[in-house]
Amino acid sequence: MPNRAATPSPFPTTTAGSLPKPAWLAEPNRLWPPWRLTGDELAAAKDDATLLAIKLQEDAGIDIVCDGEQTRQHFVHGFLEAVDGIDFDRKVEMGIRADRYKAFCPTVAAELKLRGRVHAREARLARAHTAKALKFTLPGPMTIVDTIADAHYGDRVKMAMAFAGLLNEEARGLAADGVDVIQFDEPAFNVYMKEAATWGIEALHRAVAGLSCKTAVHICYGYGIAANIAWKGGLGAEWRQYEQFFPALAQSRIDQVSLECIHSHVPMSVLKLLDGKDVLLGVIDVATDAIETPEEIAAVIGQATQHVAKEKLIPCTNCGMAPMRRDVAEQKLQALAKGAALARDKFGK
Fold this sequence. Notes:
The protein is an alpha/beta fold. It has one domain (39-347): Alpha-Beta Barrel (TIM Barrel). It is 35% helix and 19% strand. The chain has a seven-stranded parallel sheet. The longest helix is centred in the first third of the chain and has 22 residues, at 39-60. It is globular, with a radius of gyration of 19 Å.
């Protein structure tokens, strides 16, 4: 492994996790893209894509890099594929995210168990090929429960805790692989706010138990797909979902909270509710191909410094970039790094 590079302060940059896949690996511009290859060729191609994702981030100037989720077709089901007790042939069409859209979901048919390590290959590959701080993403327990049918547990909380135990197994392995930050993606928190503040955070605590690395939870308003854009259009002039569970998150054992900010209607004042936490501030809009200017990004960071200590701010993307065009994602990452650098000059002193 290369010697670790120093992380700039303040305002080190990162992404929410996913990046577009190369066209030779999977069909582009799709959220759930079919693989182009099979067998050993697919495994080798996933390795190549992972290294390219790291190189893309490093060249853009991103400080805390991810594997880009290049080995996963979907951020939830990429984990579920390694879990026994799930019947992928028994798919049920169900509404997810409070019926925002429908999806064909596999069914939990028996007790859940991991067949072994899930992401060891790509985590170790990434760790061996970057000197940057490394973040790795996993789906959160509540979001998994909202994205799968249940024919065994009969109780969402019980099933969430079972998944949290499996996530903890994998997270401990990732920490041993040299991952610096493990992030759990919980878009369902913005839909089931009351549950998020109670058993949602309890399940996260089960998932992070015993970890010595940094832990994060990513809570956005969804990918830049039509169903999410339409939903956000009906949320009104101010989006106050975060207010309902951020106080509970502030009291939690999670170190970092990732949220959507730029081009949203989230009041910047809600950041005060995360006192003591690192805030991964969404300053890149994944719902548009328009490239943010460094000045625009720096302005959002500057506004955030009025509510969060600058040492606690980590500029980030609003959400994952998986469905985007690769050239657009690359330009947005470059803008992110330039915007953070400008913010250091203007607000970092």
